[in-house]
Amino acid sequence: MSMRYLTAHLAQEIDAKLMGEAGAFSLDQLMELAGLAVAQALAASFSIPKYTRVLVCCGPGNQGGDGLVAARHLSHFGYKPTLYMPKTGNKDIYQRLHKQCTNMSIPTLPASADLPASLKSQDLILDAIFGFSFQGPLRAPFSRILPLLRDSGLPMLSVDIPSGWEVERGPVPLQSEEGEDLGAPLDPEVLISLTAPKLGVKGYRGRHWLGGRFVPPAMEREWELNLPEYPGSEQIVQLPTSAEL
Question: Where does (6S)-NADPHX bind (predicted)?
Fold first, then answer.
Protein backbone atom coordinates (compact mmCIF):
# COMPACT_ATOMS: atom_id res chain seq x y z
CA MET A 1 0.00 0.00 0.00
CA SER A 2 1.20 3.51 -0.76
CA MET A 3 2.07 6.02 1.94
CA ARG A 4 -0.76 8.28 3.00
CA TYR A 5 -0.55 12.05 2.47
CA LEU A 6 -2.31 14.07 5.17
CA THR A 7 -4.94 16.76 4.91
CA ALA A 8 -4.72 19.66 7.37
CA HIS A 9 -7.62 18.20 9.38
CA LEU A 10 -6.03 14.76 9.68
CA ALA A 11 -2.63 16.22 10.59
CA GLN A 12 -4.29 18.19 13.40
CA GLU A 13 -6.17 15.10 14.55
CA ILE A 14 -2.98 13.06 14.71
CA ASP A 15 -1.15 15.75 16.68
CA ALA A 16 -4.05 16.00 19.12
CA LYS A 17 -4.14 12.24 19.69
CA LEU A 18 -0.38 11.97 20.11
CA MET A 19 -0.51 14.64 22.82
CA GLY A 20 -3.75 13.33 24.34
CA GLU A 21 -4.42 10.51 26.75
CA ALA A 22 -3.89 7.83 24.09
CA GLY A 23 -0.49 9.05 22.87
CA ALA A 24 0.75 10.52 26.17
CA PHE A 25 3.42 12.66 24.50
CA SER A 26 4.16 16.20 25.62
CA LEU A 27 4.67 18.99 23.11
CA ASP A 28 8.27 19.26 24.31
CA GLN A 29 8.94 15.62 23.43
CA LEU A 30 7.44 15.81 19.96
CA MET A 31 9.23 19.08 19.20
CA GLU A 32 12.57 17.68 20.37
CA LEU A 33 12.24 14.59 18.19
CA ALA A 34 11.04 16.63 15.21
CA GLY A 35 13.85 19.19 15.56
CA LEU A 36 16.46 16.45 15.86
CA ALA A 37 15.13 14.88 12.66
CA VAL A 38 15.31 18.25 10.90
CA ALA A 39 18.94 18.69 11.95
CA GLN A 40 19.79 15.17 10.77
CA ALA A 41 18.11 15.76 7.40
CA LEU A 42 20.05 18.98 6.93
CA ALA A 43 23.33 17.28 7.83
CA ALA A 44 22.58 14.40 5.44
CA SER A 45 21.83 16.82 2.61
CA PHE A 46 24.29 19.70 3.10
CA SER A 47 27.69 18.78 4.48
CA ILE A 48 30.35 20.82 6.26
CA PRO A 49 32.48 22.73 5.32
CA LYS A 50 30.62 23.86 2.19
CA TYR A 51 27.39 24.54 4.09
CA THR A 52 28.62 25.49 7.56
CA ARG A 53 26.69 28.75 8.04
CA VAL A 54 22.94 28.18 8.35
CA LEU A 55 20.33 30.91 8.70
CA VAL A 56 17.54 29.28 10.72
CA CYS A 57 14.35 31.23 10.00
CA CYS A 58 11.72 30.58 12.68
CA GLY A 59 8.08 31.55 12.75
CA PRO A 60 6.25 32.24 16.03
CA GLY A 61 4.46 28.87 16.26
CA ASN A 62 5.38 25.22 16.71
CA GLN A 63 7.14 25.21 13.35
CA GLY A 64 9.51 27.83 14.69
CA GLY A 65 10.02 25.71 17.80
CA ASP A 66 11.15 22.83 15.60
CA GLY A 67 13.62 25.23 14.00
CA LEU A 68 15.01 26.30 17.37
CA VAL A 69 15.55 22.68 18.39
CA ALA A 70 17.21 21.98 15.03
CA ALA A 71 19.52 24.98 15.49
CA ARG A 72 20.73 23.64 18.84
CA HIS A 73 21.47 20.20 17.40
CA LEU A 74 23.15 21.71 14.34
CA SER A 75 25.47 23.61 16.66
CA HIS A 76 26.40 20.32 18.35
CA PHE A 77 26.99 18.80 14.89
CA GLY A 78 29.57 21.50 14.07
CA TYR A 79 27.43 23.87 11.97
CA LYS A 80 27.29 27.63 12.64
CA PRO A 81 23.58 28.44 12.87
CA THR A 82 22.21 31.96 13.18
CA LEU A 83 18.62 32.48 14.27
CA TYR A 84 16.25 34.87 12.52
CA MET A 85 12.87 35.30 14.18
CA PRO A 86 10.91 38.10 12.50
CA LYS A 87 8.10 37.55 15.00
CA THR A 88 8.99 35.85 18.27
CA GLY A 89 6.66 33.26 19.73
CA ASN A 90 5.20 34.15 23.12
CA LYS A 91 4.64 30.64 24.51
CA ASP A 92 6.82 29.47 27.39
CA ILE A 93 8.18 26.54 25.36
CA TYR A 94 9.32 28.89 22.60
CA GLN A 95 11.09 31.16 25.07
CA ARG A 96 12.84 28.19 26.70
CA LEU A 97 14.00 26.81 23.37
CA HIS A 98 15.40 30.20 22.43
CA LYS A 99 17.20 30.39 25.78
CA GLN A 100 18.75 26.97 25.12
CA CYS A 101 20.11 28.32 21.83
CA THR A 102 21.47 31.41 23.58
CA ASN A 103 23.21 29.12 26.06
CA MET A 104 24.93 27.48 23.06
CA SER A 105 26.15 30.92 21.91
CA ILE A 106 23.97 30.74 18.81
CA PRO A 107 23.49 34.33 17.63
CA THR A 108 20.06 35.83 16.92
CA LEU A 109 19.57 38.50 14.30
CA PRO A 110 17.31 41.36 15.40
CA ALA A 111 13.91 41.41 13.73
CA SER A 112 14.92 44.72 12.16
CA ALA A 113 18.09 43.27 10.61
CA ASP A 114 19.04 44.04 7.02
CA LEU A 115 18.04 40.61 5.75
CA PRO A 116 19.54 40.87 2.23
CA ALA A 117 22.91 41.84 3.75
CA SER A 118 22.68 39.06 6.35
CA LEU A 119 21.90 36.44 3.72
CA LYS A 120 25.17 37.24 1.94
CA SER A 121 27.11 35.83 4.90
CA GLN A 122 25.19 32.51 4.96
CA ASP A 123 25.60 29.24 3.07
CA LEU A 124 22.14 27.78 3.55
CA ILE A 125 18.59 28.61 4.71
CA LEU A 126 16.54 26.47 7.08
CA ASP A 127 12.90 27.44 6.55
CA ALA A 128 10.89 26.81 9.72
CA ILE A 129 8.48 29.73 9.40
CA PHE A 130 5.03 28.29 8.63
CA GLY A 131 3.68 24.77 9.05
CA PHE A 132 0.61 22.84 7.95
CA SER A 133 -1.76 25.22 9.75
CA PHE A 134 -0.74 28.18 7.56
CA GLN A 135 -3.51 29.98 5.70
CA GLY A 136 -2.67 32.82 3.32
CA PRO A 137 -2.34 35.52 2.33
CA LEU A 138 0.94 36.69 3.86
CA ARG A 139 0.92 39.31 6.56
CA ALA A 140 3.78 41.65 7.38
CA PRO A 141 6.63 41.10 8.05
CA PHE A 142 6.47 37.73 6.25
CA SER A 143 5.16 39.28 3.03
CA ARG A 144 8.54 41.02 2.80
CA ILE A 145 10.68 38.16 4.12
CA LEU A 146 9.60 35.17 2.03
CA PRO A 147 10.39 36.82 -1.33
CA LEU A 148 13.83 37.80 0.02
CA LEU A 149 14.55 34.22 1.07
CA ARG A 150 13.30 32.91 -2.29
CA ASP A 151 15.44 35.35 -4.26
CA SER A 152 18.60 34.97 -2.16
CA GLY A 153 20.13 32.29 -4.39
CA LEU A 154 20.94 30.17 -1.34
CA PRO A 155 19.94 26.52 -1.11
CA MET A 156 17.06 25.88 1.26
CA LEU A 157 15.66 23.11 3.43
CA SER A 158 12.01 23.49 4.46
CA VAL A 159 10.37 21.88 7.48
CA ASP A 160 7.16 19.86 6.93
CA ILE A 161 5.87 22.06 4.10
CA PRO A 162 7.59 25.03 2.42
CA SER A 163 6.45 28.28 4.01
CA GLY A 164 3.63 29.89 2.05
CA TRP A 165 2.49 26.63 0.43
CA GLU A 166 -1.07 25.53 1.11
CA VAL A 167 -1.20 22.25 2.98
CA GLU A 168 -3.57 20.59 0.53
CA ARG A 169 -3.11 22.53 -2.73
CA GLY A 170 0.65 22.84 -2.53
CA PRO A 171 2.65 25.68 -4.12
CA VAL A 172 0.67 28.80 -4.91
CA PRO A 173 1.94 32.29 -5.86
CA LEU A 174 2.79 34.43 -2.86
CA GLN A 175 0.32 37.18 -2.12
CA SER A 176 0.27 39.86 0.55
CA GLU A 177 -2.69 40.63 2.78
CA GLU A 178 -3.13 43.81 0.76
CA GLY A 179 -3.56 41.77 -2.42
CA GLU A 180 -0.10 42.44 -3.84
CA ASP A 181 1.31 39.71 -6.10
CA LEU A 182 4.65 38.70 -4.57
CA GLY A 183 5.67 36.22 -7.22
CA ALA A 184 6.52 32.55 -7.21
CA PRO A 185 6.41 30.37 -4.09
CA LEU A 186 9.47 29.03 -2.29
CA ASP A 187 11.16 26.16 -4.12
CA PRO A 188 13.45 24.46 -1.58
CA GLU A 189 16.04 21.93 -2.70
CA VAL A 190 15.25 19.73 0.31
CA LEU A 191 12.10 19.04 2.32
CA ILE A 192 11.64 17.10 5.54
CA SER A 193 8.07 16.03 6.23
CA LEU A 194 7.18 15.34 9.86
CA THR A 195 5.03 12.44 11.10
CA ALA A 196 3.73 11.85 7.55
CA PRO A 197 3.89 13.97 4.38
CA LYS A 198 1.14 16.50 3.73
CA LEU A 199 -1.10 16.40 0.69
CA GLY A 200 0.30 19.63 -0.75
CA VAL A 201 3.82 18.20 -1.17
CA LYS A 202 2.74 15.15 -3.18
CA GLY A 203 4.19 16.68 -6.34
CA TYR A 204 7.40 17.88 -4.67
CA ARG A 205 10.40 17.01 -6.86
CA GLY A 206 13.37 17.78 -4.61
CA ARG A 207 15.16 15.60 -2.08
CA HIS A 208 12.51 14.50 0.40
CA TRP A 209 13.00 13.13 3.91
CA LEU A 210 10.54 11.87 6.50
CA GLY A 211 11.18 12.48 10.20
CA GLY A 212 9.34 12.38 13.49
CA ARG A 213 9.89 8.77 14.50
CA PHE A 214 7.30 8.72 17.27
CA VAL A 215 4.06 7.32 15.82
CA PRO A 216 3.10 4.11 17.69
CA PRO A 217 2.37 1.14 15.40
CA ALA A 218 -1.27 0.92 16.53
CA MET A 219 -1.86 4.57 15.61
CA GLU A 220 -0.09 4.11 12.29
CA ARG A 221 -2.48 1.27 11.49
CA GLU A 222 -5.50 3.24 12.72
CA TRP A 223 -4.77 6.10 10.33
CA GLU A 224 -3.49 3.80 7.54
CA LEU A 225 -0.34 5.89 7.22
CA ASN A 226 1.76 3.11 5.62
CA LEU A 227 4.99 4.79 6.68
CA PRO A 228 8.33 3.50 5.38
CA GLU A 229 10.67 1.69 7.74
CA TYR A 230 13.34 3.84 9.36
CA PRO A 231 16.84 2.39 8.93
CA GLY A 232 18.49 1.22 12.15
CA SER A 233 18.70 3.98 14.74
CA GLU A 234 18.16 6.82 12.25
CA GLN A 235 15.55 9.51 12.92
CA ILE A 236 15.04 10.13 9.19
CA VAL A 237 14.30 8.10 6.08
CA GLN A 238 14.54 9.32 2.49
CA LEU A 239 11.34 9.25 0.44
CA PRO A 240 11.12 8.71 -3.32
CA THR A 241 10.62 11.81 -5.44
CA SER A 242 7.30 12.36 -7.17
CA ALA A 243 8.89 11.16 -10.41
CA GLU A 244 9.73 7.81 -8.78
CA LEU A 245 6.27 7.14 -7.34
Answer: 62-66, 131-137, 160
Does a structural domain hold residue 104?
yes
pLDDT level of residue 244 (50, 70, 90 thresholds) = low
pLDDT at 47 over 80: yes
pLDDT in tens, 143-171: 999 999 999 999 999 999 999 999 999 99
Q: Which amino acid is at 16?
A: A
Whole-number Å distance between alpha carbons of 142 and 199: 23
Spell out a b/e string for 172-200, using b for 16 or more CB atoms within 10 Å of the CB, else e. eebbbeeeeebeebbebebbbbbbbbbbb
Question: Residues marked as binding for K(+)?
Answer: 63, 127, 163
Point out the annotated binding site.
62-66, 127, 131-137, 160, 163
Does residue 172 belong to any structural domain of this protein? yes
Pairing state between β 174-175 and 156-159 = unpaired
Do 8 and 16 form a contact (C-beta atoms < 8 A)? Answer: no
Domain count, the chain: 1
| Whole-prediction pTM | 0.96
Residue 141 lies in a domain: yes
194-218: per-residue pLDDT in tens? 999 999 999 999 999 999 999 999 9
The answer to whether residue 1 sits within a structural domain is: no
The β-bridge partners of 55 are: 82, 125
pLDDT above 90 coverage of the chain, percent = 93
Could you list the residues known to form a binding site for (6S)-NADPHX, using ranges. Answer: 62-66, 131-137, 160
Q: CB–CB of 211/236 below 8 Å?
A: yes
CATH code of the domain in which 209 resides: 3.40.50.10260
